[in-house]
Amino acid sequence: MQVLDTAARINQQIAENPVILYMKGTPEAPECGFSRQVVETLKQIGQPYAFVNVLAAPHIREKLPQISQWPTFPQLFVKGELVGGCDIVLGLHSEGSLKELLESANAA
């Protein structure tokens, strides 16, 4: 029963938040370097986003990689779709498309 509850909770979080970051720690206190880099990038862009601290939610930390087919954290979702982890987020930011993606998600 717990697995279904966790999967449903994850799907609900992704559906209800235009931009959501599953990370280790919080935006104020990231607990890994990759999460810190993504948070700093999101701060530069200045668009709102939700987050889930997977260290404080071990069921989500365990289940999300099965749902997203992405093995590591952080994981950034925009409009219900996985964007990717740290390298992909930083790459999209450097080419300028991440800002547009986040702006369009939050404008909807």
UniProtKB/TrEMBL annotation:
Residue ranges constituting the Glutaredoxin domain according to the UniProt record: 19-83
Gene3D superfamilies: Glutaredoxin
CDD domains: GRX_PICOT_like (cd03028)
Pfam families membership: Glutaredoxin
Keyword flag Ion transport: no
InterPro entries the UniProt entry points to: Glutaredoxin, GRX_PICOT-like, Monothiol_GRX, Monothiol_GRX-rel, Thioredoxin-like_sf
UniProt superkingdom: Bacteria
Keywords: 2Fe-2S, Iron, Iron-sulfur, Metal-binding, Redox-active center
Keyword Iron-sulfur: yes
UniProt-listed PROSITE patterns: GLUTAREDOXIN_2
UniProt similarity note: Belongs to the glutaredoxin family. Monothiol subfamily.
Protein name from the UniProt record: Glutaredoxin
